[in-house]
Design a protein that fits this description.
Strand content of chain A: under 5%
Radius of gyration of chain A: 20 Å
Helix content of chain B: 25-40%
Distance between the termini of chain B: 42 Å
Largest sheet of chain B: 7 strands, mixed
Number of helices of chain B: 9
Largest sheet of chain A: 2 strands, antiparallel
Number of domains of chain B: 1
Order of helices and strands of chain A: EEHHHHHHHHHHH
Number of strands of chain A: 2
Radius of gyration of chain B: 16 Å
Shape of chain A: globular
Number of helices of chain A: 11
Strand order of the largest sheet of chain B: 1-7-6-2-5-3-4
Number of strands of chain B: 7
CATH superfamily of chain B: Glycerol-3-phosphate (1)-acyltransferase
Helix content of chain A: over 70%
Strand content of chain B: 15-25%
Oligomer: heterodimer
């Protein structure tokens, strides 16, 4: 890679993409402020908090990506920790499971260690095989059999979603770089941006045209119009972004966009169902204006592994 | 000074990173004394979590009332309780008469401090409320200047229950209620405060659907 292609140690295409995201965020801030001026009587605290939190979240992720691979991996490990903690705190758990939960937490540094050393084989089976088999064993040693099956299921499901799935984002950084102008972080930016933009565009299309509800029992605001609008928007955005940020062709990028759009929707409604079951609105209060960290990661828990494996098998 | 350092360098980062709080009703938190913050008790962490809600500049104002027999058993724990937490020791043996018993508490209240106490008297079974004791009402009965603010905590009983040394990270709910109006009869106050706790529990995110007292919004 030539020096001119790198700005502040960030590959130029990724640098530009970060600039575009920050520009969009600045635009959102300006729109909010002008709305505030036009309608000073309206309460926009929620929107204000939401946008402020976006600044923080994007700032932290970009800073970590800019600081280097290891910092980024540590950040994603920490995000997994926060998400797993939040999950364990809201789902029904027996008091006797706290020691099992402790072992589940220990899976996080190990899983990200496999990522950091680029040991793909271990990264891909550690949680689905070893943790999967080990946690029930730990539970047996405690000996509380009442509610055993449910507890095994809940704990492993939590670890799969918050650690296994999320660690795929980090592993994107370890793959062979086939588009040096964007670097490994181009893939991460592609995935994060399209997943979050998918949420936004499904929401916007739904607001504009939404009529026919998809799953009224789980999420009454989700409509076919929003879903399909998001799907078309994201597949085209992904086609263009794919050429710029990844080694994918336009068509490959579009397929990635379709995968991200559909699976992002599913992740969203899966976590919605969890919250419905528990009769809570937000999973926590970590991110002002958004709720808990699971409320923000819901789509990513589905898009990350699915995009990763699509890319890994068909493109990489 | 030891207290400010302890909270700035250890407690606050620990609570933020390892616990994570869902706080409701922060505006009800009494920042200035004389006031009494009355919480449910499940874990040693209850005290430091409630104290960590206070900004560092007010941290010296909040004083937990704690069992003298438990915290002064050991010299080192005693030093820590005095200098890092700033407890007000309470004699649980039943030997002291009532006027003497609350002397330290009254002095602190006169001084404009916020007393943190746990009307259940003991940590008890994790995540189960035991009965509210009368002590807190005897303390504030003759003080017109002191209001009781009820607060419930949920989740810390899983993070660090009684008689367990292994800490496991869990998010925790803190729900702070409005001022509690004292009833004429102490027994009525006990009942009313118990009801307030039951209501506050319904706002906890971490209180799962399987348990009694389901929360809904």
């Amino acid at each position: 890679m030539q020096n001119s292609d790198v700005i502040f140690k960030i590959p130029s295409h990724s640098f530009v993409a970060m600039g575009v995201v920050l520009g969009l965020l600045a635009l959102a801030t300006i729109i909010r402020l002008s709305l505030k001026r036009k309608h000073p009587e309206r309460d926009d605290t929620e929107l204000k908090l939401r946008i402020q939190s976006w600044w923080w979240m994007i700032g932290i992720v970009f800073a970590a990506l800019g600081a280097g691979m290891q910092t980024s991996i540590v950040l994603f490990a920490f995000i997994s920790f926060l998400a797993l903690k939040e999950f364990f705190s809201i789902v029904p758990m027996r008091l006797s499971d706290r020691r099992v939960a402790f072992w589940a937490y220990l899976a996080i540094p190990l899983q990200y260690y496999w990522v950091a050393m680029g040991w793909y084989g271990m990264f891909i089976i550690f949680i689905p095989v070893y943790v999967f088999l080990l946690l029930p064993m730990r539970m047996v040693l405690i000996g509380e059999t009442s509610g055993f099956i449910r507890a095994v299921g809940v704990i492993h499901w939590s670890v799969m979603l918050t650690v296994f799935s999320i660690s795929h984002i980090a592993y994107l950084l370890m793959l062979e770089v086939n588009n040096p102008a964007a670097g490994g972080m181009g893939l991460v930016l592609f995935l994060l941006f399209l997943t979050q933009f998918n949420d936004v565009s499904q929401y916007v299309w739904g607001k504009m045209l939404g009529k026919h509800k998809i799953i009224p029992k789980v999420s009454p605001n989700k409509t076919w119009e929003g879903f399909l609008g998001g799907l078309v928007t994201i597949s085209f955005c992904a086609g263009f972004a794919g050429i710029y940020l990844t080694p994918m062709t336009f068509e490959q990028g579009m397929v990635a966009g379709i995968i991200i759009s559909i699976s992002g929707f599913i992740g969203d409604v899966v976590i919605s169902s969890v919250k419905r079951d528990l009769q809570i609105k937000d999973s926590g209060q970590l991110i002002p204006g958004h709720g808990g960290i699971l409320d923000r990661l819901d789509s990513l828990m589905y898009t990350s592994p699915l995009f990763f494996h699509y890319y890994y098998y068909f493109v990489c | 000074m030891a207290k400010i350092l302890f909270f700035a360098l250890i407690v606050k980062p620990f609570v933020f990173l390892m616990l994570g709080l869902n706080v409701r009703g922060r505006e009800n938190l009494p920042l200035k004394g004389p006031a009494v913050l009355a919480g449910n008790h499940n874990s040693h962490l209850d005290t430091i979590v409630l104290m960590s809600l206070y900004p560092l500049k007010d941290i010296r104002r909040i004083r937990p009332v704690a069992a003298a027999d438990y915290f002064y058993k050991n010299k080192w724990v005693g030093w820590f309780a005095d200098h890092c937490i700033g407890i007000i020791p309470l004699d649980r043996s039943g030997k002291a008469d009532r006027s003497q018993l609350f002397q330290g508490c009254h002095k602190a209240l006169d001084n404009g401090d916020v007393l943190l106490l746990f009307p259940e008297g003991s940590r008890g079974v994790p995540e189960k409320m035991s009965s509210v004791k009368k002590g807190v009402f005897y303390l504030v009965k003759d003080r017109t200047d002191t209001k009781i603010t009820p607060v419930v905590l949920h989740g810390l009983g899983s993070a660090l229950p009684r008689n367990e040394a292994l800490f496991v990270p869990f998010n925790c709910d803190v729900v702070i209620g409005e001022h509690f109006e004292l009833r004429d009869e102490v027994s009525d106050s006990v009942k009313a405060l118990t009801d307030v706790y039951t209501t506050l529990f319904t706002y906890c995110l971490t209180r799962q659907a399987t348990q009694e007292g389901n929360r809904v919004e």
